[in-house]
Specification:
Structural class: alpha/beta
CATH superfamily of the largest domain: Aldolase class I
CATH topology of the largest domain: TIM Barrel
CATH architecture of the largest domain: Alpha-Beta Barrel
Shape: globular
Order of helices and strands: HHHHHHEEHEHEHHHEHEHEHEEEEEHHH
Number of helices: 17
Distance between the termini: 56 Å
Number of strands: 12
Bound molecules: pyridoxal-5'-phosphate, iron/sulfur cluster
Helix content: 25-40%
Strand order of the largest sheet: 1-2-3-4-5-6-7-8-9
Length: 459
């Protein structure tokens, strides 16, 4: 096929039959959410049963050891497992997002901390983050149909792990939800509510509908979005779980009657995640008039090559999903190997812009640590490439403060990496970057990660 049209070549057929554990499963069974949920793999022992000798003993050992060092528990659907190229799992972009291998992990960046976005600081009610003037983030549940090892909300999402014990628990609870609704009702400036989690796929249909209705009926709420990775993890559900899809449709239709918008935000990272069954699920949502946008995480080896990102963006557009954001990878534990430098992302953005419609061209944003919110990757006040420090301001969200983003150390010169290991050198490098950005005597950056360690250093 013509190279320009590769994005239309969607994988079809019974791609799961190559997996020993699924080789006897027919389409009528595999293409249902019941099977996808029942056969979801949540342990190395289960994975062994499914994959058998498709991979060697070394792989299982590497994985078991990787999981011990990961902030997220293991959870992957048969659909995604079957889309991995098991000939070369070490470099497969789907494997690298959901199955951590010890051999590829890198030491964490010394400035890293859990809940790097400080979402709990801006939480008036547990599970509700109100950081921006007119929009809020509501987390009704803390489970997902899959666990991404790079999840930013590893402080809350999924079960406790050795690495992150005692997570914040955000179970589905009417009392907690009522508190969130009451808060939103009390803030007339709030026009936009993101319903995330966790994942809206894991909301029961009656809960999804009740939450949607309750929010749309608040007069000042004009826009709601249901966030779900479901279309990527098990698109089959949209087609086979009519109760869920119909509940979503009713909320969207209610929105339309009230002259408001209710949409879906989803999450694809690799073009390999979009196949024929994804297109069929999207076709149904398009017929129902449901707008779907995508938020992608920029990841080394998954989509950090311009050709990978171009293909992802074109493929999303082809099946009617609007690429909305590409996030520079948040600083979360255990995933340093997936992060890229700011420079790399800025370069990818340059190559994507111009390949398709402007409204299908995602903005590349950094969600700054310490709660400065999302910033366009190009809008840094100062960027020290040698030491891998970018400095941002966020005048509409946290005026007068300075926010930083750090490139992964593995891409820096050995001498610089060595400096990062020493606390006094770290302080000096960060202070110099903020001074170079124009930050004289600013207190704001004490809200930064590792603030304890940085406290007392004049900006
Ligand atoms: C990302 C985010 C939102 C939504 O922001 P948009 O830029 O409109 O997509 C709202 N609240 C919080 C806390 C967020 O992190
Ligand atoms: S689907 Fe989203 S919230 Fe759930 S684990 Fe993945 S990144 Fe985290």
């Amino acid at each position: 096929m013509n190279h320009e049209l590769t994005h239309r070549a969607l994988r079809s057929g019974e791609y799961w039959r190559q997996i020993p554990g699924f080789s006897k499963v027919g389409a009528d069974e595999f293409e249902t959410h019941q099977f996808q949920q029942r056969a979801t793999v949540t342990s190395v022992a289960q994975l062994r049963l499914v994959l058998g000798e498709l991979v060697g003993e070394r792989f299982y050992e590497d994985l078991a050891s990787g999981i011990q060092n990961a902030p997220m528990a293991l959870r992957i659907s048969p659909h995604l497992l079957s889309l991995i190229d098991w000939e070369t799992p070490e470099i497969d972009p789907i494997r690298s997002q959901f199955l951590p291998l010890r051999s590829t992990q890198q030491p964490d960046h010394p400035m890293l901390q859990l809940d790097s976005l400080a979402e709990r600081q801006d939480s008036p009610v547990p599970g509700l983050t109100h950081r921006y003037p007119d929009k809020a983030l509501f987390l009704p549940v803390d489970t997902c149909p899959v666990y991404c090892r790079f999840c930013t909300r590893s402080y809350a999402v999924g079960s406790d792990t050795e690495r992150v014990g005692e997570k914040l628990k955000l179970h589905a609870s009417q009392t907690r939800w009522d508190q969130a609704f009451a808060y939103i009702e009390s803030k007339p400036g709030l026009e936009d509510v993101v319903i995330s989690g966790g994942d809206s796929y894991n909301l029961r249909p009656d809960h999804l509908e009740a939450i949607g209705r309750r929010l749309l009926e608040i007069p000042h709420v004009r826009r709601i979005r249901f966030a779900t990775k479901g279309l990527c993890v098990m698109p089959q559900k949209v087609l086979s779980d009519a109760r869920w899809t119909d509940a979503l449709t009713r909320v969207v239709e209610l929105g339309r009657r009230l002259h408001k918008t209710a949409v879906v935000h989803t999450h694809f990272n690799s073009p390999n995640e979009i196949v024929e069954s994804t297109r069929r699920a999207m076709d149904l949502l398009v017929e129902r008039g449901i707008t779907v946008r995508c938020q992608t995480v920029l990841q080394s080896g998954v989509n950090s090559h311009p050709a990978q990102m171009q293909l992802l963006v074109k493929r999303l557009g082809y099946i009617n999903i609007q690429p909305y954001y590409v996030y520079f990878h948040d600083m979360v534990p255990g995933v340093e190997d997936l992060r890229t430098s700011l420079a790399e992302g800025v370069e990818v953005e340059k190559r994507v812009r111009g390949t398709t419609a402007g409204f299908h061209t995602p903005a590349f944003v950094v969600d700054t640590m310490g709660g400065g919110g999302k910033r366009d990757g190009h809008s840094f006040e100062y960027y020290d490439r040698t030491h891998g420090i970018a400095v941002f301001t966020s005048p509409s969200v946290k005026p007068g403060q300075w926010f930083v983003y750090f490139d992964p150390l593995w891409g820096l010169d050995p001498g610089v990496r060595e400096r990062w290991q020493r606390p006094e050198e770290r302080r000096a490098m960060v202070a110099a970057a903020i001074r170079n950005a124009g930050g004289e005597g600013s207190a704001g950056w004490q809200a930064l990660p590792g603030a304890g360690e940085l406290a007392g250093v004049p900006g």
